[in-house]
Each structure stands twice: as C-alpha cells, then as structure tokens.
Design a protein that fits this description.
four-stranded antiparallel sheet; 8% helix; 2 domains; 160 residues
Amino acid sequence: MELDFNGLRELLAAINQTDVSEFILKKGDFELVVRKGGLIPYSAPPSLPVHEPPAAASLPPVTLPPPVAPQPLAVSPLADKLAEVTSPMVGNFYSAPGPDEPAFVRVGDRIRLGQTVCIIEAMKLMNELEAEVAGEVVEILTQNGEPVEYGQVLMRVKSV
C-alpha cells in the first residue's frame, strides 16, 4: 500500500467530512490512527537503559598547559589615521558613473568631504556614495562591478 502526502491529505479531508471519530489503518509495520475531537491518550515510550559514566578514579589525570600571556597587537602608526568607507547597503559597486568614464577616485587621489567616491547599485537604483571624511585614498578594496554587502569596507582614506 502506497500513501504519499497528497493521498494522506485527501484521506484526512474525506474523514473530516464524515462523523467518523476514529480511523485506524494497519498494514504490516505501518499504522495510521486518526481521531477527531477529544484528547489523544499518551503512552510514554519504553524507557531506555541508562549507562553510568565510569568512576572518576579510573580516569587518568588531565594536565593543562600553562596559560599564555596575551601578546600586544602590532599596529602601524598609519592605521590610526585611516578612515574606512563602507557600503551602506547590499548591491553592486561601481567606481565610475559609466562604463567609458573615468573612476570617481583612484588610489592617491585627495578627496573632500561630500565628494562622490563610488556608486552602489541596488534594485536598479544608482546610489552615489559621498565621502564622510577628507583625505587621501590609500586603498580601494573592491573591483568595479563586484557585489558588496552591507558594512563591507570599500576603500580606506588617510585623513588629513
């Protein structure tokens, strides 16, 4: 006997339209019980054997390595003055206003506050991203046309 999901759904719909309160279908190891209304009696599953863990005395002692002192992070003096330009949305990064036009900024360019540095295209809308800091572009981390995530670092600017 084959009973797929659609067949079961049709069977339940048919039972629901009658005043049958209980339906039992048995075939070999398969058993289906459908009851309408009232509470379903619960029978607890047979208890499983419980295995006790071995006694602690039979386990070998554990020795932990000595704690390691935290090492200071090496930070370059330049890292303190770098501002990150991050994507405010998920979309595609474009470095220029059009395919045959020059990039808004390149590494080494000086930018001013409010200057357009790239476009993030999201849902067919071109969103110009403006610099929130003035300085020199020292790194562009995304290629033209690449998808970007919210909060992803697009470029780093050395603030002046």
